[in-house]
Amino acid sequence: MTSNWSRAELASLRGFIEALEPDEILRIKDPVPMDDVPSALVMELEKSGKSPVIMLENVTGSTMPVMVNLLADRKRIARIAGLEEKDFYPAWGGILANPIPPRLVESGPVQEQVFLGDEADCNSLPLARHFAEDGGRYINAGVLVCKDPDTGVRNLSYQRLCLKGPRRFSSNLGSRGDIWEHLNRVTARGKNLEVAIVIGAPPAFYLAAAAKVAMEVDEYDIAGSLMGQPMDLVKCKTIDMEVPAEAEIVIEGELLHDEHEDEGPVAEYTGYSSYKSTRNVFVVKAITRRHKPIFMDIVPGTSSEHLLLAGIGRHARDYARLKEMIPGLKAINFPRSGLLYHAYFSFKRVAEGEARRALMLLFGLDPYLKLAIAVDEDIDVFNEAEVMWAVATRFQADTDMFVVPKVFCNQLDPSSVDGMSAKLGIDATAPKGWKEHKATIAPEAAEMARALIKGMGA
Ligand SMILES: Cc1cc2nc3c(=O)[nH]c(=O)nc-3n(C[C@H](O)[C@H](O)[C@H](O)COP(=O)(O)O)c2cc1C
Fold first, then answer.
1. Omega of the bond leading into 166 within 30 degrees of 0 (cis)
2. Pair (357, 250) in one structural domain
3. Helix H segments across 140-196?
4. Could you list the residue range(s) of the whole structural domain that residue 393 is in?
5. Alpha helices, DSSP H only, in 299-342?
6. S-S: 355 plus which of 53, 286, 329, 427, CB 3.0-4.6 Å?
7. Looking at the structure, do residues 58 and 157 belong to the same domain, yes or no?
8. Which residue is closest in CA terms to ligand 1's atom 28?
9. What digits encode the pLDDT tens for the residues 128-177?
10. Is residue 310 part of a domain?
């Protein structure tokens, strides 16, 4: 299953869902409560290596179906961009370099129904409590669209929103992205920040929102580049903002400059429940939606979807920058086992000391990283056992590793101290003058063995 979807199928979330092959989507018709069960489903499937899109067609207490796990699979993400999985990082630079600006249209399905003021009641949404410790019900797949208050350039980013009242949420802007900077600037002028929360947009929109780009870049242009056509936008009803015409639901409102409210704890990508929050209050002015909208959710914590979306933009940028400096870079893997903290990369070494240089570059590029392992080009970095084989056989701890103490890091690392962590670089490339040869099996013998054991479940 490597074929990519057509432009028409990628133009809306529902078109995309309809185009999925039966083995790519799990439709559940039994009644499902939004307390913990969607997360349990995702995590149970992941134990057996499966990550289908899940459509909960009968959610307790709501008439809306709920979709989770849309972007939980690296292959599916690459295919949305029209790529093979292995080409995703190498091709990302080209996607960013070929922006396709959006097109403003008069009307769109997302405004089939408009609820203003008191009618915009968010209690009607099927919000999940994702993990047992969570301190409330959350929108976790809402992409916040805001504008740079000085330039008007639009920004897309993911922020969780905890329901606090029918028209009130509290959010954490702790990753200090562009929206944090925009809010700080309007706060200094005594103003609120207009924000639209988009739920259930065309799949490319989610990759654009995950991109790590300069503040001057309109992330709708990246969505267009990924789709190979402009994304259609409509003007919001109550704020000066544009949102995807094909979205399922949009919540229009403002982030307040002068009010804060507790939210959390909530499951973070580290696998721990965290109270860390900037406690920013969002108030709702309107809800616009399709007649029968699909609600979208992303399971937080260590789900593949959360880890992939939280990492993919930064990782694609890490690859591009490292490749610029180390042309022999072959592949890089940020293994799921290391959450966002570990990286393995392979490269063709042309000089002694190059592995250390590459390791230091990578630590400089990505503050999340705490462990990076450099291996030779014959090692498949996507095969963790092979990487560990290189460490076992080509690495000596007294000469081939270094530690950089007290470096700026991601504050959610529970073992970090004062926002700093140590970086461990491991050079598992073969030492100078290496004469060892890998023991190999003749291809004909391997083929014969496969034929002999066929049907034995091996
Ligand atoms: C599903 C999901 C939920 C996220 N929730 C939050 C959040 O609640 N608060 C936060 O600060 N960052 C959160 N992040 C990370 C930010 O969205 C991310 O850093 C974003 O790229 C910032 O973009 P910007 O620099 O363009 O503003 C989340 C990421 C994902 C994938």
1. no
2. no
3. 178-188
4. 326-427
5. 304-325
6. 427
7. yes
8. 158
9. 999 999 999 999 999 999 999 999 999 999 999 999 999 999 999 998 99
10. no
Choosing from 159, 170, 299, 304 the residue with most ligand 1 atoms within 8 A of its CB, the one to mutate for a pocket test is 159
Query: Hey, which of 42, 144, 175, 339 would you mutate to test ligand 1's pocket, going by the most ligand atoms within 8 Å of its Cβ?
Result: 175
Both tokens assigned to 52: 């289908």
Ligand 1 centre distance from Cα of residue 245 (Å): 23
Enter the pTM of the model.
0.95
Which tens digit of pLDDT belongs to each residue from 1-11?
445 799 999 99
Q: Is 86 helix (H, G, I), strand (E, B) or coil?
A: helix
Read off the pLDDT of residues 76-108 as tens digits, 9 standing for 90 and up.
Answer: 999 999 999 999 999 999 999 999 999 999 999
Instruction: Say yes or no: 114 and 249 in one domain.
Output: yes
- Residue nearest (by alpha carbon) to ligand 1 atom 7: 159
For residue 355, the domain's CATH number is: 3.40.1670.10
Judged on CB neighbours under 10 Å (0-12, 13-18, 19+), 297 is buried
pLDDT digits (tens, 9 = 90+) for 3-58: 579 999 999 999 999 999 999 999 999 999 999 999 999 999 999 999 999 999 99
Name the residue type at position 363: F
Same domain for 275 and 375, yes or no, is no
Give me the pLDDT at residue 1, please: 43
Residue 455 lies in a domain: no
Average pLDDT on 203-223 reads 97
Task: Indicate if 350 and 258 belong to the same structural domain.
Answer: no
Kindly list the strands in the beta sheet with 103-104, ordered across the sheet, starting from the edge strand earlier in the chain: 103-104, 232-235, 242-244
74: left (phi over 0), alpha (psi -120 to 50) or beta: alpha
Residues contacting ligand 1 via CB (< 6 Å) = 140, 155, 157-160, 172-175, 177-179, 298, 306, 309-310
Q: What are phi and psi of 354, to 5 degrees?
A: -70, -30
Euclidean distance between CA atoms 60 and 71, whole angstroms:
24
Interatomic CA distance for residues 419 and 191, integer angstroms: 30
Number of domains observed in the structure of the chain: 2
